[in-house]
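Chain and backbone:
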Amino acid sequence: MKKTLSKNMSYLVVCCFLIVLPYDGFMQSFFEINFTTPDRAMVVDGVETQDGDFIFLINNLAYIPGHSHPTLIKTDQQGNLLKTYVIDYYDFIMLSKILSAGDCSYYILGVFASYPDLVYDSLYLSEWTLDLELIRYTEMALPFNDYASLQAAIINSDDQIVLTGSKVMPPAIQSYIYLIDDQFNLLNQVVFNQSANYTRVHSIIEFSNSGLNGYLISLSGVLNSDEGLAKLDSDFNIIEYFSLNPHLNNLGNTTLAKFSDSMYIVTGKFTNTQISLNDIKSLKMDINYNILATNLFGKEPDTIDFPGFLNATAIIDNDNIFISGTSNMNIPQFPYASTPSWFILNKVNGDLDLQWQKFYGGDAHYSVYSIIPSSDGGCVMLGTRYHPNNPTGIDGYILKVGPDGLVSVPEIPGGLQVKEVIVYPNPGSSQLQIQTGHDDLEIMIFDATGKIMTQEKIRQFYHIIPTNAWPSGIYIYRITRNNELFESGKWVKAE
């Protein structure tokens, strides 16, 4: 293994701002990172270190000889790059999870694909220092000689690694769970035989003080199109299965977040074709499958909103919870969609009541893969960004926000400066265009004398204001929600 930083990779910290907040821990920071590789990149997981820095895992989405190597990056609290490590094997590795191995090191887990067949035939298990120095790694055989994933992993109450994934290629889709000690010795291995329910595991959490003394998993039953939960004992035997239909009814990415010793939050996809509803849905449940609270997160009925593919929920404390996903997902064209989409971020309390909802993006097609909490009470959303101007590439994308979801920071020349509302082109001539994920905003535009040129409701996604008849000059716009200022700025009408 050697450390390299490809000159074909680019790393852009788009925005950074610091203020002091009354949260225990570090100062609040906001940053935006667009990470470009020669092909296609996606950010799948991350962790905040004990000193407030961040480590992120970035994968290539396809194999290209000489280019397709996963990348580890370390940043400070403001998103400034501290170190980059390219895992430069001849094999293709897909990283999946980063887990704390104590105060001084981290486990990074993934799957190997053997060249030239590129069949995922082994697990990649490694330990790294906080400075991204490799301590050790090993390969461990998968239970099937076929394409497989590593979907989720945790450290259990005995400081052991519990990881799970699936054989992803039909017709025989199966899932596995491994128990591994801190020396990377395999202690237990369970493979779920294909059945109507036990086919693909997405998420796992442990309960040791609730009477269960085992694990809870979320999984898809491909044969009967079912999303469900299953209790496992400490040896990973399935004790019972609970169907989530009709509460969650779209296959593929139902994830779990532990709320307390006896409660958890399930987040997945809810679809109602009769009213064109495609929303993110969260359920707060107890260990006996009682639903304690529920809520839907989305916008217009014709908007397709998806939860984060690998993890959709970040719990700060029992009354500050973030639920994230993608708004206006273009499924037929994914991941090369030319339509705009947004990172959607919902902040809820312990009863899943919505505190606020924000949308970031709209200038490209964004997709959320994961969300992680940060010590300042905010969160970091991880995923991809695709712009039609770069037809062959997809960038890895990271957005860090504080407890209030703000990203209103000084613009950096050449940066993306992600916003909730995009006003363009600026300067413009015949029309002013607005893109936003919100549907409850109003805009007022004033000329230099303070005269109101227009005042109107903003339609979600695209809104156009004709400006041909306006004199050239500088105009001020104010965007409000419920009579409160949402955003303001200058717009220039060119001659």
